[in-house]
Specification:
The protein has two domains: 4-177 and 353-369, Rossmann fold; 180-351, 3-Layer(aba) Sandwich (Rossmann fold). α9 (221-231) crosses α14. It has a seven-stranded parallel sheet. With 386 residues, the chain is of the alpha/beta class. It is built from 16 helices and 13 strands.
């Protein structure tokens, strides 16, 4: 027998899926289970199993599926696996809990407790009156399930504190994997551009601050435009999403040039990171992978004091933190960041590499399991233990 990796749902793109990829490569013989799989080519078909929700009418609506998820996760049969590793940002850590005391050792790597249940002020999905009524029940259930013998890891100290506050559980901190070696495989990503990507790149100004992410409200890209406008520095916004038209309307009234790169390719985005003066990252994030990618590419970052992104900036000294992006202090720190020497920070960013993630993950799991082999199975004669 080998292990089982479980993940809420598999999407084509996403930070949680990067973690899942690393888990899957670290334990190549493990099975994968999810509620549904929207990226069927990501892993071999025979390796991934889906829940009954994948064949139901609620599959395309997470809001409609949410009331069913705890029961689905708790009823998963895990007894035929040596161990279970859950990649959780909602209810995946409930896996196999219906039987009460789980006989199989369960590990949960927590990206965050569900924001719309626990911190609706940070997630608009939790502000609806009906959602607030239901949230009390799900918070109580979530807290009970977390106390049922699960071994927890968090992706940042910020999330570790949430686990302590919300679930009364301690957790190891294991930063998620960043593709450091790939990002640093060339010193000039611009040399890899051609065709339309090169044309888009050449339209950009010589100096600019960069905002790059999905164009959704909580990423606060309007703050990036406002900061550039007040500092007198051109702005580039890279990404795609429902906020695009609103951001373009804001940009039309700005006193500095604002350029939009809609859905850039990875290579173009890397080249733009390297060209940018500063990457500005205002949201309160659980971890924040893109600021580390910016540092790996040699560009300083300006991040929120609240959230996981400030931890990596402090460790690497790859930028500065701002409490209030609308303040005069934010303009001062922006200009300070522009002048920052990134040599040392870029050299130390391997701390967040995929290789380091795999090492920390297996080191965290090994004491509970005895001699854990890289193929996802236990060493000869070992048995699951608590």
């Amino acid at each position: 027998m080998a292990g089982l990796i479980v993940h809420e749902w598999i999407e084509a793109n996403g930070g949680a899926e990067r973690v899942l990829d690393s888990m899957a490569s670290t334990f190549p013989d493990s099975d994968i289970f999810c509620l549904w799989n929207d990226a069927p080519g990501r892993y071999p078909k025979e390796r991934v199993s889906e829940s009954r929700l994948a064949r139901s009418r609620v599959r395309r609506s997470k809001a409609l599926a949410l009331p069913l998820m705890p029961n689905v996760w708790s009823s998963v049969d895990i007894e035929h696996h040596d161990w279970v590793l859950a990649s959780s940002h909602l209810f995946a850590h409930h896996v196999g809990s219906r039987r009460g005391s789980r006989a199989t050792t369960v590990f949960a790597y927590v990206h965050t407790p569900a924001r719309y249940l626990w911190e609706p002020e940070l997630d608009s999905r939790g502000k609806h009156p009906l959602a607030q009524i239901a949230a009390k029940y799900y918070r109580n259930l979530d807290r009970r399930r977390a106390a049922e013998g699960v071994n927890f890891a968090a992706n940042s100290n910020f999330v570790r504190k949430r686990l302590a506050d919300f679930w009364d559980q301690e957790a190891e901190v294991i930063p998620p994997p960043v593709s450091v070696s790939h990002l640093q495989s060339t010193s000039r990503w611009v040399d890899s551009l051609s065709g339309i990507d090169m044309e888009r790149y050449e339209r950009l100004p010589e100096e600019f601050i960069l905002g790059a992410s999905r164009l959704v409200p909580y990423k606060r890209l309007d703050t990036v435009i406002d900061l550039g406008n007040r500092a007198g520095v051109p702005v580039v916004i890279a990404g795609g999403g429902p906020e695009l038209n609103r951001l373009k309307s804001q940009a039309a009234d700005a006193g500095v040039p604002v350029f939009f790169l809609e859905d850039p390719s990875d290579v173009l985005l890397y080249a733009v990171f390297q060209k940018a003066s500063v990457y500005v990252f205002p949201p309160v994030e659980d971890f924040g992978i893109m600021p580390i990618e910016s540092i790996a590419l040699g560009t300083p970052v300006l991040v929120n004091t609240e959230g996981g992104a400030s931890e990596s900036v402090a460790r690497l000294r790859g930028g500065l933190v701002v409490e209030d992006f609308s303040s005069v202090e934010a303009i001062t720190k922006l200009h300070e960041a522009i002048e920052q020497d990134m040599t040392n920070a870029r050299a130390q960013v391997d701390y967040y590499s995929a290789e380091q993630f795999a090492t920390r993950l297996t080191s965290w799991m090994a004491p509970y399991l005895g001699s854990l082999r890289g193929d996802g199975a236990l060493g000869h004669g070992d048995a699951p233990c608590r």
